[in-house]
Amino acid sequence: MALGTMLKAPLLLLGLLTEGLAQLAIPASVPRGFWALPENLTVVEGASVELRCGVSTPGSAVQWAKDGLLLGPDPRIPGFPRYRLEGDPARGEFHLHIEACDLSDDAEYECQVGRSEMGPELVSPRVILSVLVPPKLLHLTPEAGTMVTWVAGQEYVVSCLSGDAKPAPDITILLNGQTISDISANMNEGSQQKLFTVEATARVTPQSSDNGQLLVCEASSPALEAPIKASFTVNVLFPPGHPVIEWPGLDEGHVRAGQSLELPCVAQGGNPLATLQWLKNGQPVSTAWGTEHTQAVARSVLVMTVRPEDHGARLSCEAHNSVSAGTQERSITLQVTFPPSAITILGSASQVENKNVTLSCISKSSRPRVLLRWWLGWRQLLPMEETIMDGLHGGYISMSNLTFLVRREDNGLTLTCEAFSEAFTKETFKKSLTLNIKYPAQKLWIEGAPEGQKLRAGTRVRLVCLAIGGNPEPSLTWYKDSRTVTESRLPQEPRRMQLGNVEKSGSTFSRELVLVTGPSDNQAKFTCKAGQLSASTQLAVQYRPEFLGEQVLVVTAVEQGEALLPVSVSANPAPEAFNWTFRGYRLSPAGGPRHRILSSGALHLWNVTRADDGLYQLHCQNSEGTAEALLRLDVHYAPTIRALQDPTEVNVGGSVDIVCTVDANPILPGMFSWERLGEDEEDQSLDDMEKISKGPTGRLRIHQAKLAQAGAYQCIVDNGVAPPARGLVRLVVRFAPQVEHPTPLTKVAAAGDSTSSATLHCRARGVPNIVFTWTKNGVPLDLQDPRYTEHTYHQGGVHSSLLTIANVSAAQDYALFTCTATNPLGSDQTNIQLVSISRPDPPSGLKAVSLTPHSVELEWKPGFDGGLPQRFCIRYEALGTPGFHYVDVLPPQATTFTLTGLQPSTRYKVWLLASNALGDSGLADKGTQLPITTPGLDQPSGEPEDQLPTEPPAGPSGLPLLPVLLGLGGLLLLSNVSCVGGVLWQRRLRRLAEGVSGKTEAESEDRVRNEYEESQWTGEQDTRSSTVSTTEAEPYYRSLRDFSPRLPPTQEEVSYSQGFTGEDEDMAFPGHLYDEVERTYPLSGAWGPLYDEVQMGPWDLRWPEDAYQDPRGIYDRVAGDLDTLEPDSLLFELRGHLV
Known about the structure:
The chain has about 1150 residues and is mainly beta. It contains 4 helices and 83 strands.
């Protein structure tokens, strides 16, 4: 209605405009010249219309105007295919006919007559052609034709939009046939002029009664014969009604245990229909339900068997659907009646006669309570006490106590407890038991062989046990010495005992025991028991000697100890004699020097030897017979090594077994062990060797033998008998020669004035013995030349060759000598350069070992000393302070020195120079330069950061003015000192020349070292050279200790006497390692000890990398101090250098 009211005013105005104009009254007198005039018309879109125009003056030119636009006099009206002129022009008919009108035809029209001879120009009144456009469709939201789901009671908005129309349509919205009053409408311009659209909006609150109904939108218009409609179906969701439980019977909630209960639950209505579930005490028990859509009903049936524990249970039926605000519930509380599930009698039915017995009868929980009564046979007994207690599930427990005196006559009667109640009149609940009254047998005895009668072994004896009366029946159990008699025996044993069953004859019971007597039956006590009654008898059996199971058959003794061969024998009567036999000889019963037979028959031996090992036969007898046994005496003795191959030899890389065979008892699998003799723990490791033990032979298997494995090994055998046996064996690993050649070129310095001698040292290791050969500049040396003398020395695996060159000539002997060492496994060689005496080479590797605020510890490696003793001098300066400081190194041959007197936190430069009698190590290099910075007083002292050995500075640096002035003053001072120094220099040269010809080295050692040692390179053990000069015919030798590196030692150098005193008589100590080696030692006096101070490393066959920093860096040192010579006796080379 609201929408109609709002649209009424504009529609009325439009209707008046169109219909009023169309129905205007035409004047009675038509204007002159027209006999028919057009009228206002209204037409529906698509229909045809005709506007009339009659002209009184035929022949005039007539045309129509549309909104002022002349359409032309042509009847076909070009440009307007739907327009044409109708009528007879001769009669003045010029009607405008329009086919299929549309909105473009909605306009003002007039009929015009042109001027002519017949009359003047004429124009008809303007008329309006109104074209009505009906709405073609309605757009409904929610969409028309669908099923729209709403929830009852909630408000929803529905909109209905009409299509283009003229005039604007009237929209009405209906639900379930009822017009919705809460509606609003808006009219809007259409897609073209003169067209309108209307949007109506309604607010709808559906109810449950609207479920399944149509919501319709109607649009009505003058252009429509009937309203157009759009609709959708409303699906209204609403909650179901309250559930109803249909209880079977009138007494709701009352039920009996065991009853099958079926409870229907029904819920009416609801969209969707209700979901039902049953709960028991709040817990779901059934979620099955069904629906009947025709009746709009949901139904669920709970089926359950009632149990006592259901008493007081709350059964609930819940109904709800998807739109329920909460769960609707209907509940019933069960009241369950249940009888006692059982009756129990507490107490034993088995009793001893003439005692008061108390029994209790207890019923399980019941509702309501039950009463109890007692029956013995057909006689009712009165209880002493009755009690009612709360039971399970809301029930009650009844208890009745009965006390009565049992007699022997009550045995076998039935005692019954009965429960009854008015609620269970058709049911009986009772519990019964049969009394078992116990009473003992009246008499018990044994019939059989008279006690004390002597029986021989093997006699068959029958014993019978008899008893009278008793309940229960007596079991009659036989015992032999408190152990129950059974017939269990091993299958191979003969059947010695037969036990019968208990037999009954009236009130008498009997059980028979039949046995064949044996030694174990002697003095045995046989007892028959029946309850508390018992009877016994004892047998006396005579039998021959019999060794017991605990008889020892093997006796172990230790050599030089005692042995007891025991005897465990049983006999009746006792044995008359014990006789022992060993290896067919009977031992005297009266005893001997090393044995005696004890009264028990045991054999006692002392001072046992391994010859006593063997089987001993024992023979004993009595009046019934004899018995024999064999006993073995096992004599253990300490092991003794019988075979040990010494030495055992193998080539490097080969395999060998060190075999150790012993005589011992016992022979144990793990009695062999091996040790390697050496000072270092690493030398003693046997991890890379295989230990094998089989019987009396043990093996130490070595695979891929290495030099490091050569040495002394000890076989230790310990079988648990002291003392263990020990044996030494030497493993000799044969290897090719290894010559000591610390650098590719070794220098030896000597004066080339044909008055001096030089000794070249060549030392090598190898097994077997080595042969040395010498060449000079590649040409074999003729040792037949009297100027060449060679001495060869062998000690173990160390071999030495000393080549002495007499009357050294610079022209002939300053050459490259090659020493070659050869044995059957290979060869090796080294080169030695014989050179002239010269100034020392600069030292190398100067570095700071540790720093403190006031000192620095320096270390370096000496260079070639030029064949003369060299000294070292340290020059240093503090940066920023003019002047240098000089410090001589003491002792002169030291290679480490601590420079003191420094200032904390100061930068210094340090130089090291070497000098000998011929000059310093070079003015250009000025020694080796090292920059250092002393730590502050608050900084910790220690080793400096890692640094590379420094080299001489690249060039001179600028000097400040003050040091230059100081230097000039120093030169003046030095000019005075030089005079004094020249005199001292002449004296020094004299001593030098004399010392070359007359000094020998003082220190020596007793023998060549035999241990392997690590290569240790220190300043004094780096490179040196030896200078030999003498005017005597006999040459002498200087030690090479200061330059010779150490090679891995061979086992020949190891002293096998270390750690052993020779007091162990069982020690198998080997002799010399190599019998084939000539033990040639140098003569005492001029030659002195050979290589007495050469330090050899144990494993490292490679020279240290720093040994190759300067090829001039490894030389011999000069032999001893040199005394000064008179100027006219100086060597030619010395005189030449001083010119």
